[in-house]
Amino acid sequence: MLYLNANILYYIKAYSGCQNNRIVQNRPNTYEAPRVSIIMPVYNAEKYIAEAIYSILGQTFQHFELLIIDDSSTDRSIEIIQSFYDPRIQLYQNEKNEGITASLNKGIALSKCELIARMDADDICHPLRLEKQVAYMQENQDYAMVSSWVRLIDEKGNYIKTEGTKSKYLYYNLFFECCIFHPTVMFRKELLAKIGNYLLAYAEDLELFQRISKHFRIGGIDEPLLDYRIHDANTNTVKRKEEYDDFSLKVLQDNLANCLGNNKLPIEYLECYRYNYDLLKKKNVAGIYNCLKLLDTISICILDTSNPNNCKEDINFMWQFKKSFIVRDLAKRLPIKQKILLLWKYDRKTLLSVHKMKISLINQIKRILPIGSYS
Question: Does domain 2-240 fall into CATH 3.30.565.10?
């Protein structure tokens, strides 16, 4: 009963903002070797670090080690971390600021467990996170990684919305965006060792996820197991975000080049596949057609590539969904002539059923399309 009460207390304290961290001494004296290594890089996280740690200590699954890698913080982060008295918390300090990739790889090297979970210093784990992910990995021994959805929260902890990609669509979507929230992942250390750790200074998560998915099965739990905080003062500063975005696009272009005869996909096409149309709208209709044609080429390549995550039904569904969504969403933003030409080629049903089409729209279609094509 003492064990359960401790868990409940940790969870309540994490959400109440209590600062008396010494309460973590009130734990049973029983000891079991850790089964999960949690890696938490920290840099100037004094505002949220206590809440993040409490959410780990409040897990229903208690057999873990928490490896905190401080990247030479200049605020009170170290002081707050050291105020916790729990033998499972291990603090390591970089002598100089080395960046998140070096800190993560250091944590992996120090980890003692086969299962490694990621956590950020400004997020909040839901109490069942570790329990559910450990169970998932035990039930799916051929999977190298599992992730989950998240609840987006603001700097004050207010709920914004829930985000996540269904597990069966992760593989396809990773070709176009980082659809996995980094602090939700748990992976097998043994399998990670076979392909190497984090490599890039930026977009390190996307590049690793793509590399893992090329060799091993990846999965997800289709429910939020973490509160992901959106705020201005986190480790993703404006400069880092800009560099992350630039690196992400390069990682995606390099990966997609394998489907395009080693040719680089135009950036405006890649942005379109990510539902950003500003650059593509400057193109003529022929350019938009070519963009959608290349999406077909890429999707066929993904279908034809041997991969442990290749489920043709799921890939086909996401391919057609993405293409249809782009056509309809982009059409809303185009001048009337381009809108008509785009919908006539790819989605005539939508074009011809727009509220029983006004006569003015029908007349415009007749002027734009070849005679007889609309009869």
Answer: no
